[in-house]
Amino acid sequence: MALKEQLIEELNEVPDSLFVKVIDFLHALKNQQLEDYEDIADAHAALATIETEGTVSWKELKVGIG
Questions:
Q1: In degrees rounded to 5, what are phi and psi of residue 46?
Q2: Residues 34, 58: contact at Cβ < 8 Å?
Q3: Which entry of 22, 50, 55, 63 is 20 to 30 Å from 1 by CA?
Q4: In the structure, what pLDDT confidence band is assigned to residue 12 with cuts at 50, 70 and 90?
Q5: Of 24, 27, 25, 22, which Cα lies nearest the Cα of 10?
Q6: Measured between alpha carbons, how far is residue 49 from residues 16, 36, 37, 59 in Å?
């Protein structure tokens, strides 16, 4: 059984009173994933800058990517 099918099966058993919490949890997971992708993009941009402009200190790199 595919993961999506498992999730749908579980959702069919969740009482209506928990749907707000389930949706909030899914939104939190999606937001975390987006933040992770943004962090990775920032790190790639910092590395690209290093390649084009030369090396930077570890401290500068950490400041650059937040």
A1: -65, -40
A2: no
A3: 22
A4: very high
A5: 22
A6: 50, 20, 18, 15
- Cβ 61 vs Cβ 38: under 8 Å: no
Q: What is the pTM of this model?
A: 0.54
According to the 3-state scheme, what is the secondary structure of the chain? CCHHHHHHHHHHHCCHHHHHHHHHHHHHHHHHHHHHHHHHHHHHHHHHHHHHHCCCCHHHHHHHHC
- Phi–psi pair at 12, nearest 5 degrees: -65, -20
Closest by alpha carbon to 55, among 63, 42, 46? 46
Question: pLDDT tens across 44-63, in order?
Answer: 887 887 777 777 677 777 77
